[in-house]
Each structure stands twice: as C-alpha cells, then as structure tokens.
Fold each of these.
Amino acid sequence: MSDAVDVLVKRLNGLAPKTALVLGSGLGPLAGEVEGAVRIPYAELPGFPRSGVSGHAGELVAGRLSGTPVLMLNGRAHYYEHGNPAAMRPALEILAGFGIEKLLLTNAAGSLDPQMGPGSVMLITDHINFSGTNPLFGEPSDKRFVGLTNAYDAGLRGAIEAAAEKTGTPLYKGVYMWFSGPSFETPAEIRLARIVGATAVGMSTVPEVILARFLGLRVAACSVITNLAAGMTGGELSHQETKDMAPLGGKRLAAIFKAMFAAGADV
Ligand code: HPA
C-alpha cells in the first residue's frame, strides 16, 4: 500500500467512499457542504500533485454529501502547469488504491453554442484530444491501449440527467475538446473545433478521463460554462472571467450532484 493510501485509510477512520469528485473552477464551495468533513492538504499525501493555479485549492475533503460517502479533490494539477499530461496520474492511482470506483470530473469551459451561455452546465458525452499528447506516453504495459469508446459511463450519465431533471436544472450535452492552454484558443481554432464537432473547449479533464479508464474507474464529467469561446463575442477572454463566472454554473452543478447522491442512484 502506498504511503498516501495509508494516510487516507488512517485519517478517514472507516469511511470508505466509492465515488470521488474532482472540483474544478466554481465547484470549490461544494467541499464546504460535506458533512463530517475530514480535510487533508495535498502536502500531507506523499506523491500527490499540487496545483499552483489561482482559484484552485489544494486539499482532499472526505465525508458525506446528501448522506452518501464521497471524497473530493478540491484543486487539480493541469497539463499546462509543467507540460506533463500525466500530472494527475499519482492522484488517481492513490484514489484507485484506496478503493474509489467512480470518478466525477468537473471543469470550467468555453462554449461553442451561442444558446449555451455562461452559467450553463454541460454533461460531457465524448471528447476530442487533438493536443498531440497523452497521459499514457511512457506507460510500458499493454494496458496503455485503453479503449475510449464508452469512456463516459452510461449509468453515471443517466444518474446525472435524472438528477438534473428532478432539480429542474437545464443540462446541455456535448463534446469537450481539450486544448493544452494556458493561452486561450484563437478564433480560428474555435472555428476548427466547431467543424470537427466540439461543443465546448477547455484545458483539463481529458487526461484524467484517459488515466481513470486506464485504472478501471467509471467516469462521468461535466463542464460549467464561463464564456462563449474565442471570437464569438468580440471581447477578449481572461482567467478572471473564468473565476468570476464559474460560480454561476457551479451552483447549478452542485445542486445536481446533491440530488443525485440524495436519490441514492447508482453512484
Ligand atoms: N477555453 C479554454 N478553457 C476555458 C475556457 C475557454 O474559452 N473558458 C474556461 N476555461
């Protein structure tokens, strides 16, 4: 057992969540709603990657959400921080080693659909990785040839859709295209993204989905839309806008997750 798994077992004291959430921009406040929360700074988990991005805390929070044991990562490491697509591999290996079976990923994203404006929530049905990199580069085993046909778990997606309906929260569905960041896309890149079938663009999540499937976790992912993508409004994009607008959709997505766990759905 890795040292970090050891720390988790000791600190969680018998709590054995099967579901982990990765809280992207706008979702951080959900960590404050965990009942009986145990908070562990990433610095106390040997090998755990830390994020230096403003708006991203760096702690693991575990407890109950709507009565269901959950584990949350409040803050994640991104590819664009150091150019390492496998930045989240140690974190996900630790979660899998601890017994996590399901991973709910969240992120902030730019929308390619003028109807799906800031504050919207999008369930990711599939992704496009045109980055040229992959978190499994260097993995020597044949397990690296991981299938992604059903990367986004049908059961988890169904539970999220049902919870959205129950709470009356509009839920868009679409394809997330991963751009490396940290610079935003150009208008020409967004036109390309539209042609190849993207609905939203962002700088995270795709490497985590690949790693999670590699580790055998079931995965679902949602975006909170913070802006229309580059060139769609005439204005310039900024990280400040992402941070300012993420809480809008973040509140909606948090309500969906709470309803999902309250329903005791297959999560
Ligand atoms: N592009 C990439 N990442 C993002 C965006 C965007 O427009 N908005 C929030 N994260």
Amino acid sequence: MRFPLKKISCHIAVAVLAFSAATSMARTFRSADVHNKDFPTNMAVKYMGDELSKATGGKDNIKVFGDSSLGSEKDTVEQVKIGALDMVRVNTAAFHGIVPESMIPSLPFLFRDLDHFRKTIYGPQGDKILAAFDKAGFVGLAMYESGARSIYAHKPIRSLADTKGMKIRVQPSDLWVSTIAAMGASATPMPFAEVYTGLKTGLLDAAENNYPSYEEAKHYESANVFSETMHSMGPEVLVFSKKIWDTLTPEEQAAIRKSAKASVPYYVNLWEAKEKESRAAVIKGGAKIISASEIDRKSFVDAERPVWDKFATTPELKALVQEIVTAK
Ligand code: GTR
C-alpha cells in the first residue's frame, strides 16, 4: 500500500506528539521489593516518592510493591531490564552476575567496620559502583547499608569448624556460593521468600542475614541461634530501568536522582533503629545470640580471603578492592 507524502508526515507528527505527551504525562513509577511495606527499604522508597512528587509539582510519584508480590529479586531485576517494571530495590547479590562491580562490597570481611563501609559506599567508591550499572542497561540510583550478615542455625557457630558440612541457604549468586563453600559448608541458593519453609522442613540447616530480615521473615522460629559471624556487609541497591529512563525528560531524571540521594540519610536513621528493635524482638521471641566477641573471627577471615581473588579478577575490580581497603 502506498501512502501519500502528506499522510505520512501527518502520521509522524501524531507519533511525535504522542511521545512528548508520554514524557510530560503524570507518572507513578512501580518499584518492587521482597520486604514488607514497613521495612526501612520500602519506607525509604516511599519517602523518595514523596520527594519526587514535591520536585515535579505532583507529576511523578512512586508506588512500592512489597512482600515479593512481583516475584523474586531475580524476576524483578529481569522485569526492570526489559522495561516491564520501572524500579527495583534489591540486595546487590541480585546483580552479581550482571554488574561485576556490584560483587565488590559483598566480598567477605571487606570492611573494617560500619564507618569504613559508610565512607566508601556512600562516597566515591559507591558512586563508581552505581555508575557501572549503566553499561548493563540499568540506572543505579542509590545504595543503602544492610548491616552485617551473620549465620543462624539450630546450633551455635563459634569458629570455622562449626560450619563444616552444614547446608546453608544463600542468595542466588556465585560469589555467595563460594563464600559459604570457603566455610566448608554446602550452599543452597534460593529466593528469600522460600527460606522460611526451607528452614522449617529441614531442607536447610542454616541461613544467613541481618537482624531485621531474620526477624521479619520469622526465621528465628526454627533457626533459633544467631551467631554474629558478620561475614559480609553486602549493601542494598536501588535501580531504575534504563529503557524507561531514556523516555524521561532530563528534568525528571535529575529529580529522580536527587530524591533517591535524599532517601539515603532518611533510610540510615530508620535502619539504625530497626536493627536494635529487631535484635531485641528476636531475643524476646526465644532466639539465642552468640555475640561477635565469642566468635573466632580470624578462622573465618583466613578461610574467606581467597574468595576476593576468585571474583575480583580484572585490573579494574582489583583496583576498586584496593581503593576500598586503603580508604581511611
Ligand atoms: C535481605 C535483603 C533482601 C534479600 C534478602 C535475602 O537482607 O534486604 O533484599 O536479598 O536479604 O537474603 O534474600
């Protein structure tokens, strides 16, 4: 079929109009999370939505879909990649296979302490990691601390000898499988939402996480001894779909970036309080704590060191590790 030239230019004009209308349309971005709506990650994204709404005169906002309602972290990252979902808040582990730089802050025993983590991950090294999401087709907006992850089981873990032969759940990531293998244990990768049943049925001997997740998902009901191994401080990350990002105006993009940054200090306040509350709540719920001072940390640190070299393989990744390690 042949179209007269006039008709074609008219079609183009309609398409251009539709596109610019789409970019100036009011938008509610959808963001996924595995945690419930009151969890600090979700409250921070809600806060970001409020800031964004203010900055855009009520045009743009964010709606959070929690409780894994849009799928596992892996599923939702895939949706964001193809532009079926606008945003996602996940642990960096969900990006280990996609953005190599995201592995670095998850390396076992990388950070000396929380202060070291904050200086680097909320500083220049964190910015480098976020920028690296771009080449994988994502927009890295912010990282949030996630405390330190520790092992919980039916028995106390006091040294490396105690983890030998245990079946321990990990987030689906090769780095995580190797971290647990280095403890002489066997790693079972599975989504967060399935861990409760895995622990209850005895499919798993243990899992590892921070106090707020241990409490929220009620893992303490079956794995009631929480041993503060504090083996990783792998952070959370907030990511926007590049496919959708590219349809937004530069003003909208700037407002999104700014409101995401503003959510970080808001999150940190909530998180600090939540960690304390959750620790107290699990003790009240019957959990026994093996505190960090009762654990032979060196036995774990020595066993885990080779994991760094296994995953920080390129000169760029090695340099990033060095930059973090030597940061004062
Ligand atoms: C939590 C984290 C979640 C998820 C979960 C897990 O600490 O906030 O995003 O990664 O751990 O272990 O699957």
